[in-house]
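Below: protein 1.
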Amino acid sequence: MILRLVTTFVFSIRSVLIVWLALFLSMSFSEAQTQVASSVSPDTIRLTLAQADEQFKAHNLTVLATQLGINENKAYEIQSQLRVNPAVYVETMPYNQQTKEVLPFRQSSAQQVVQVQQLIRLAGKRNKQLAIARTNTELASDRFYDLLRTLTYQLHTTFYDLYYTRQTLNVYNEEIATLQQTVSLYQQQYSKGNVPLKDLTRLKAYLFSLTTERQQLLSKLIDDQADLTVLLNTNPSVTIQPIIGSGLINQFSVNTLNLSRLFQLADQHRFDLKGYRDLAKQEEQNLSLQRAMAVPDLTLQGTYDRNGSYIPNYFGVGVGINLPVLNKNQGNIQAAKVRIQSSQQTVNAYTLQVDSDVERAYAKAQQTEQLYRTFDQQFNDDFGRLIDGVTTNYKKQNIDVVEFLDFFDSYKSSQVQFAQLQNNRMQSLEEISFAVGTNPFQN
């Protein structure tokens, strides 16, 4: 029995030493990271959401590259307006056998032929090709604005994530700093035999748990920082610190929005949907062009023959046209009709998808808004004052370690959950803007 008690006691001491050693290594690693970070001293830029939007539109490389695609298609419009170049044919005799001369251009008995041809496109083919080229420019514009919508949504959500992650990190930093002081005091009291080992172990274990959770937040902070650096095209060594005023958080509410109005905005501003509609329009333009291609083009020709005709210096004018007997472009016309039907079905399906996106984003935002409005925002301030009193009473040993850690953990959880609730609310509003393709509070 005595041997079992001794074994149990040794095992407990060993467990405590392992926890204490892990905590010491974690704290040492955290302090080393802090020293390295302070030695680097990276520059920090403070940005509001409006400033981030301006920098994003001016410097994002993907946006700038996609915008050049619009100019490229405008150049194709210019090309489609150009007429067919005339063709010139020249023929001469290389050697005159009678006069034994090479290339006898000046001999009155030499033979030369000159022909000039000009293709005249009929049935409005050039205008129809121009219409297709203009629709291609519209499609390039649709792709650009849809990319802008997607990247703006990514920018805003990352901006809010980074901001509220920093807010949560401040809570952890505050708790860890307070708890480190408490652990240090309790370590001194334990050395004097005034406090039991189990209380000190509980404090160190909880401190280790907080440090681990804080490390996970730091990893998320690094990821968000990297994403913003790419979106804003800034120097990776520069730290971006988002700024969100309290007025911005409560400025907008989903309760002021109307679902039918959101459907209208999505119909007007969802450029991915507009892209499908432009594709359907282009298929109709293609059918018109294919029908025009069934009409043969006209060729005008002028001929000069020096000595090869029945009279010297012959001038002639000719007209040529293909006879649409065997090939009337029937296959291309039929394929164009099928593609019109297919594109219209695609537009209908995507319209349904867009309406579903809007309705889902609106419903989720309503739920988040309701939860946010029911949360007592004064609760966190009161809890903050309460936890100060709890810490003071614990140091005076008016409450035990279990009650102290329970209050400490409750305070941390409430602060973190409130920050997450605020983030979820702003994210849901951004999801509505993403679903309708524009900011519904400004339209």
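Below: protein 2.
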Amino acid sequence: MRTVKLSNLILAVSPELYDLLTEAELNSYVLVERDFSELDQEELNDIIAKAIVFHQVNPRYH
């Protein structure tokens, strides 16, 4: 298990997705349980989706 920058993970596994993410998303860190080569596309998509959701959370003020 290791912590890596999302940008490094994407460049290693699916570089075509790199331009779809914001700088904040690319600079976020994710926890990867296995080696990059063992990740399938569905797992990578799940990691990306969670990073996007994390960075889109806006607190609502009343």
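The CA atoms of residues 5 and 29 lie 4 Å apart.
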